[in-house]
Design a protein that fits this description.
Layout: H1 14-30, H2 43-50, H3 54-66, E1 70-73, E2 77-80, H4 86-97, H5 103-117, H6 127-146, H7 149-165, H8 170-176, H9 180-186, H10 204-211, H11 215-228, H12 235-239, H13 242-247
Antiparallel strand pairs: 1-2
Length: 254
Amino acid sequence: MTRPPTLVLGSVRDELKSDRVAAELERRILCGELAPGDRLPTEPELGQMLGVSRSVVRDAIRSLVARGLVTVRQGQGTTVAAPSDATFAHALIALLARSELTMGDVVDARAAIECSLVPMAAETVTAEDLAALELAQDAFAAAVIDGDWARARESHLQLHLGLLDALHRPALQLFLKPMTEIIVISSAPPRLGSREDWEVETHPPIIDGLRARDPEAVRAAMAAYFRRLEGTRYEEFRALSFRAVFAEIPWARP
């Protein structure tokens, strides 16, 4: 493994040294100089190589662990982690949970994104996409009828993710990956045990518009779906803080 060269850190505070060590190791990981599975030198070795104390290295490693870039296991040392979008999703969740935003704010932001993007999928959707969407819709409807709320959540999520996948724009899909947990949390109905609140009937028109390759029909169906989420049944839910809803949904926590 190629070891990072000595960094000239000068006489700065230890916490700043830690940031700079973390930034240099992060750069090397993201650039591919340190590949997934590569084992980093031990803390004493890194400290000697970088000219910093062991505590500075330890703080830098903790920062990289928090970002999902490295893993630390007893007896195995520190290794570069495999790429994952979970860390970025958790960071987005943390930002929202620390904000004063309401569920209405979050749902409206989702509406702006999905109502703008999903109609574009009318030009790119494939037969395989449509089959997957219909399968997710059928599973969603069946789960709601059965009162299987865990299965309803999962199939509802797969349905909305399938709409974004049908865009077939890899960079855009990568940008939107952290939205997954936002969709999970903001799609929770105000009354979990109420079949009516799952809005099952609002989804087939979206799929029908995609099947017809009609962007305007898809746009209208998406708008109708989100408009339902503005109704009186949702007033109390929309007024709740994102933080409060997140705290009450253990299955959505990172």
